[in-house]
Amino acid sequence: MAEKKLPITVPPGLAVHPELVPYLGKLQPFSDPYEDIEATRERFRGLLALRPADRTGVSSERYDIARPDGSALTVEVYRPERVEENGEDDEAREVGEGLLPAVLHFHGGGYAIGRSLPGQDRSAIALCRELPAIVVTVEYRLAPEHRYPAGVEDCYLALEWTAEQANDLGIDTERIAVTGNSAGGGLSAAVALMARDRGGPALVYQSMCVPDVDDRAAEQPVPAMPEDEDAGAGASSGPGAGTPPNPWLNSLRTVRLAWQHYLPEGTTVPDAYASPARATDLSGLPPAYVMVCDLDPLRDTGLAYARRLMDAGVPVTVHNVPGAWHGFELHAPDTRLARETKAHWKGQLRSALYPERAEGAVVA
Questions:
Q1: Would residue 172 show up in a list of annotated catalytic residues for this protein?
Q2: Which of these is catalytic: 60, 116, 182, 251?
Q3: Is 326 a catalytic residue?
Q4: H or E element: which one contains 318?
Q5: Residue 94 in contact with residue 131, Cβ under 8 Å?
């Protein structure tokens, strides 16, 4: 019996990637994560605890950084365990001697959730082990309790601390990058702007995956969808019966709520450190990587930001994931599409931090 194809409303001309179609029916109906943000965070922590990360080859240590007001910002520094030089490949020898590049990783989650359990940041562990690099994760203050600029100032403070502690941490200050997914991508863009404007630590790369860089993405209208017709009514028939949740629409709803709770109340036009696409000058920024997904309401604003970076003379690599929605890799981590997407992101970071190893690099 042929597998039933689940219907989904997507932007005109786009289709769900074949590998992802089976996962549509497993998506959960939309619910407002801010209705009880502490309960949302607790559910997220519970899901993380179900599948502990594989820390093989990686160690980590937590540090507290003093904020100007005397409170503490916690960061966790992940480092690849040293190996003996015994004829292994270049990456193994790099870990065994000399300084390593550093990556500051800013988690996503609508500026409100997404913080990993201590020692369990999967993205940090993967980057640490596979690049290799020293990876600093930042437990920035979360909205809505701490609205802008709390979170981004924490991220910039972590960058300053990383550069100041580079000698003790074994970091090459010529090779520091920032990366993040969704809200973390927006924070990466903002920190790159802050470092340029404040004369702060130099960044060699800014890597932004499905970045939330423009508050105007939240101004897109929310269309009525068939799956909304009988939402909450428990109906088994009608226009919306049997229709899976729409990931594009659900992401748009989440984006709208995230900006409402991140920006200070009464904000009409946020500044560039809150919404990087508001920056009037993007020149002088580090080379960038921008990854977007077809079925993501953040796609067009991400592409527009990438184009403006290019127009400002910034080298940019753009990668679009066809037929994928925002956060698809969380729902379908074992698909080839998810694996290839993560490999591309890590590969571009590796090339930026180890240019001598980039394919086709000319060695003098």
A1: no
A2: 182
A3: yes
A4: strand 316-325
A5: no
